[in-house]
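Following up on my earlier thread - several people asked me to post the actual chain instead of describing it. Fair enough. Here it is, all 229 residues.
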Amino acid sequence: MLSKIQSSLAKLLAPGERLLIGVSGGSDSVALLDALVQSGWRPHVCHLNHKLRGAESDADAEFVRDLARRYELAVTIAERDVAAMAAQEKVSLEDAARHARHGFFSDAARRTGVHKLALAHTADDQVETLLLRLLRGTGAPGLVGIWPERQIGVLRVVRPMLGVRRTEVLEYLRAQGLKFREDSSNSDVRFTRNRVRHELLPLLEREFNPAIARCCCAPRKSCAMRIPT
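Reply from S.P.:
Thanks for posting it. Predicted structure:
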């Protein structure tokens, strides 16, 4: 896993480039943080407490604070009442959470002067996104999936783990002896993405194509030709 991430980093970042990293405390972001530090980067850790799971959310924030302290990294932690935002804006919790994160990361970029953000989306996130877009009736542009690099407002977002499967992440964490937080909401199939993750994707792998994730995440020429703005 580390060699895959380092190969992606070489394409996405200049050596020693200043960097923000979004760290939820979950397995993917903890693995990316460790890989970045092992590869010579000293990212500024950013964590947003969505206030959706009470004491569990607060414990996630403390875990990330302690993690940054162990790596001797700067850290920014903030809170947003995502449930209240969803009710006020009349959007889903997923949409409100995404908007809250974008605002938080943008604020962190303006305050620190660092405008490149690393996020820990994996190959599994990629295939889940493609399946979600198919189910919602996307056109051809939506089938590109998650871009490895993209400008979002003031931020240049990079995703160096898109070639890494979630199983590889867990193996890496075990090998390194790294702990991470389990988000209980990730098993809640009331959320559409969780239904795709826990029900649809396993069905497709079991009944139709066991290599579906690898097929969906194969490099596409269009991605190499143009980075969207």
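Confidence is low (pLDDT under 50) at residues 220-229. That should answer part of your original question.
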